[in-house]
Amino acid sequence: MSWVQVVANRSNEDIFDEDADEMYPVQKEWNNTMRKRLKEGYRDGVEAGKELALQEGFNQGYRQGAELMVACGQFRGTLNL
Questions:
Q1: What PANTHER family does this protein's entry cite (predicted)?
Q2: What pLDDT does residue 79 have?
Q3: Spatial distance between the Cα atoms of 75 and 78, rounded to a whole number of angstroms
């Protein structure tokens, strides 16, 4: 059946559904947008947390390494005298 026949057969039907909820498409789009933003926010938060933990770990390790090397350098200097 061609589309012309379908349109002709339905020509007596009301194409406007006055009982339809006009806000449904808008609400559906809003929900999809909010769901996407929630996922993006979660990903951004996880990434920021990883970066912060990595930086803090590096800072702590660098500080401990520097303190240890200063002590080793002083000990080595004392032995060379």
A1: PROTEIN YAE1 HOMOLOG
A2: 87
A3: 5
pLDDT higher than threshold 60 for residue 13: no
Give the torsion through C-alpha atoms of 64, 68, 73, 76, to 10 deg. -170
pLDDT tens by residue, 25-73: 888 999 999 999 999 999 999 999 999 999 999 999 999 999 999 999 9
Q: Which residues of 37-67 are buried (b: 16+ CB within 10 A; e: fewer)?
A: eeeeeeeeeeeeeeeeeeeeeeeeeeeeeee
For residues 67 and 73, give the distance between their C-alpha atoms in angstroms, rounded to a whole number: 10
Number of helices (H), then strands (E), in the chain: 2, 0
Give one DSSP letter per residue of 39-68, joined into a string: HHHHHHHHHHHHHHHHHHHHHHHHHHHHHH
